[in-house]
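Form 7-S
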Amino acid sequence: YLTRKEVPVRAKVDILSDIARDLSYVQPLKSAELSYRALQLSQQIHYVRGEAYSLRESASNLIIEDHYYLALKNINQARRLFESINDSTGIIDCYISLGHVYRRLKTREKEFYYNEIAYEYFRKHGPYERIGIALHNLGETHLYKGNLEKALDLAKKAIRLNDSLGKMSVLSSCYKTLANILLQKEQDEVAKTYFLKVVSISEQFGENSQKVAFTDALLNLARLAKKKKDYKEANQYLEQATTLIRAYNLFDFVTP
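Output:
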């Protein structure tokens, strides 16, 4: 489809950006390649919206690589472009990205600020896919701020919505968040069932799995096994996690 000459370049840019977004935490290198191609095409035809989304998607990959200054630069550039064409949804999508940056920087108040605005916007305007992501992000923020009951409520809502939409990559992240909440509430056995759900989804989708959620689940399952003195199982989970961490450069990304 993307190689067909009769397909408008704008349509190709939009498709490349959508795929890049979906692959950000699944196949980061492929996502970076696609967002760069989308950026080049956008600039060639002066497609402002396409350029803005390409910059935002490239920022997601920079976050994974821990290049926060460059990520913020791209996000703010994207936001200015969205503002120039009065694209409210694009601006709020940039807020989601800013929430991710400040989460990695452990600047919790800014993380909360951007994620709450994003959730309130998409709750009112949709689409459901973005509501599901915003719910998940805000729930995770409440977890990191220690608001366990609020985090639990949002996590369960995010799971129901993303499950109904069939968004398995996001769903695996939602299960990971719920499991971590349950760990905080000292409900280890229930937490383990949700970590195992993450593993099941990740193994089912293989290369297309959400790598951060998968790695987090494996590490926590290793800790739970070690707690029970099942060192053989703990080592098996650790070996799997180590393979993922090295393959996808997740050394600083697994634990916020």
